[in-house]
Amino acid sequence: MSSSSSSCSGTKVTDLNVDALVYCCKYLSVNDVTNMSMSCKHLNQAAYSDYIWRQLFRQRWPLAELSNFHHPSGVRAAYQEKHTTLKQFKYDDPQIVDFVTDGKPIEHIILDKDAIIFSQGPKLNMISTENYLNGNVSLLTLGDHNARITCMRLFSLSETSLSRHATQRSNSLLLTSSCDHSIRLWFQGSCIRCFRGHNGPVSTLSDKLLGDGAEKLLASGGEDGTVRLWSISSSGKRGQHALKATLYGHDKPVELMSVSGYKPSLLVSISKNSKVRIWNTATSTSIKSSCCVGMTAVRGPPVAIKCHDSLLYVAAGTSVVAIDLRTMHNVLNMEIEEALHSFELLPSKSLICTGGIDRATLWDLRMINATLKAEPLAELDGHKGAVKHIHMDPYKIVTGGPEDADVKVWETGTGSEINSLLCCQDEPSTGSGCSAIAVHGYRMVTACSGNEPGVLRFRDFSNAVSLISTDKSVPDSRFWDLTEQYDSEEIDGH
Description:
mainly beta, four-stranded antiparallel sheet, repeat, WD40_repeat_dom_sf, 40% strand, F-box domain-containing protein, Methylamine Dehydrogenase, Chain H, F-box_dom, WD repeat
């Protein structure tokens, strides 16, 4: 008995031969196979099998011809190439669906995994992307705010103590601030909390929730010059007990806020007069400002602030400054020599992108010396007017502006132009342009506004098959009717 038990306990998965492992792998997901390849040399050999990746390729992209993706390193590399080109929007046949709005400017857009959320003045609108792609537009308009929505943030329900069931943890919470002095918390299309306390319009919300304990806090900044901390899990629909602290110190309206990456209780705020304050919210009280642990100032009107690890990046006026939050010393002072209109940061590749007039500029932080004039990695030319919208991810950069109806897509590493996409239905009229952009994986939504009814244009590249030719000018995207549903399963970085 003991001998049999010993024999069974000594059997390992690596005792299976490669053919047996390959057969088992056909029941695994892409991420499972990828993780298996990193386990050991024996499992890696099985996980790299062309048989497995050929099957995964055909499951993921049934309309694509694998023969178009020959790769000397095998079918797995061909899968990665297809995944990469789709993430780069390097196709001219995405599925396109348009929604004509009432012409009021769309100021903010969020593209969630299954919904498009956008604001027009005081109205909050939601569209299900699943119904959208099937041609059934189901628009939910929420008019709880009675003045212009100034900011929208989306947080995972798993970050809070509000989720009561495991099935809810993948859902999201939406928070909006408004000129009506309120902040509203939304879940599944309904307002479940309303927070009031600012003595004026609420101008901005923190980009992340504060704290690493059970009770997470939301920070808001207002035109009254205060920063306020709220418990989003407080009881009562009106949020009477939600206000946890009011932080004083700014003498002008608070414009932007960001939460530190290395210490989740540190909050950075910048006011309209470019004064920067750092707050340790773990030591805050209900009325005192003693939790201010650092102050500085930058030149020019603030454009954007981003925290990464212990660094704070501030784009203001004609410069980008990086400040070490541990010492409050400047570690980078980059003069751009033109007024900034937008800013985005991609820490994983040490890249930043700035928006100017008629162009955006890509910079490599590793090539910038704090005492020397910065040289750009690439000039992203071809826009009209100010570039006010920038999206960056490891695959692509997307840029646009309110005076230009063309949204441009660039390769992240080189700044080479990949695609140019019209954000309106027909040839743009004078004054039409892109008022907002949101990108999520293989999908993008743009808002066009101007002298005509506004257009919300949704593009889904997940089943695109026609690669943009490299030997001709970039064509406009066209309509393509695909009936296959896209799979949410992706491979990232492998």
